Amino acid sequence: MHELSIAEAIVRIADAHAAGRRVMCVEVAIGHLRQVVPSALEFAFELVAVGTAVEGAELDVVTVPAEGRCRACATVTVLDGFPLHCAACGGLDLQLLRGEELRVESLELDETTMEGVGSGD
């Protein structure tokens, strides 16, 4: 379950940037091609957030659709299934434009400082 390691990274990033403030919400962009199971990620996120400034925070997952440009006809296609192919000509030689993202987009923080929580305290 790679969702656990992804959740650990998200919590680590959010906790470090919280700088002693409680995290209320973490928005994460995840590309369609990352094959992350949202419910598994949410479960893992709750589990690894315990004892950090991220504990109790909402995880807002934004799915980024896969999109590619055909190298044969230059058509940009939303890629929703495998094999990845051009919707216009059926070509398989695509330049991937979106869909592999995995990043923390934003944090919503409570401005009150927490004592003894987060950053390994």
From TrEMBL:
InterPro entries attached to this UniProt entry: Hydgase_Ni_incorp_HypA/HybF_CS, HypA/HybF
Keyword Zinc: yes
UniProtKB keywords: Metal-binding, Nickel, Zinc
Molecular function via GO: nickel cation binding; zinc ion binding
Residues that, per the record, bind Zn(2+): C70, C73, C86, C89
Domain of life: Bacteria
Binding-site residues for Ni(2+), renumbered to this chain: H2
Gene3D superfamilies in the cross-refs: 3.30.2320.80
Keyword flag tRNA processing: no
UniProt GO BP: protein maturation
Recorded family membership: Belongs to the HypA/HybF family.
Function description: Involved in the maturation of [NiFe] hydrogenases. Required for nickel insertion into the metal center of the hydrogenase.
Protein name: Hydrogenase maturation factor HypA
The species this protein was found in: Capillimicrobium parvum
Upper taxonomic lineage: Bacteria, Bacillati, Actinomycetota, Thermoleophilia, Solirubrobacterales
Gene: hybF
